[in-house]
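#help-structures

NK: newbie question. if I give both the sequence and a SMILES, will the prediction place the ligand too? trying with zinc ion
OV: yes, paste both and it writes out the complex. here, I ran yours:
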Amino acid sequence: MKAQCPLCNDALYLNSSCTLCEGTRVVDRDLYDRFYALAQKLRNETQIPHQYFEIDSLVLYNVSLSGDPDRFQEYAVYKRREDGNITKVESITVNAPSTRVSTLAGLLMSINKQPLSDFTDQIRAYRDQLTAEEFEAFKKRFAFFAAAY
Ligand SMILES: [Zn+2]
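OV: that's the protein plus ligand as structure tokens.
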């Protein structure tokens, strides 16, 4: 099952070459539905500090300084390697007024699809990665934090 490419269907992206659908103008429906559901949650709800989400090859981590929904809600986007290490490749604002849920879903899908080698400059700039063990340790600490929050 296919869905229309959310980036090609956004006027803001019409003239750029689409890294998501590569000109086919369609994407996998199941994957799109999963990313759309997460994008909707990120767009419409604020999360507690350090809240993270795992979806396909991505880990999103809430770095917002405020839980105020009227302020920008920021997420660091990490990509998982096959060895389980995660590397920060992007930083995104999920609730800018002009951002549509479908566009946010499309941007995340595009980051998900691109290989790590496409993010060499960002990886060098962010210098932020965790080993699989460090990420597991973070998850345990977060579970305590979330329970106490
Ligand atoms: Zn497209």
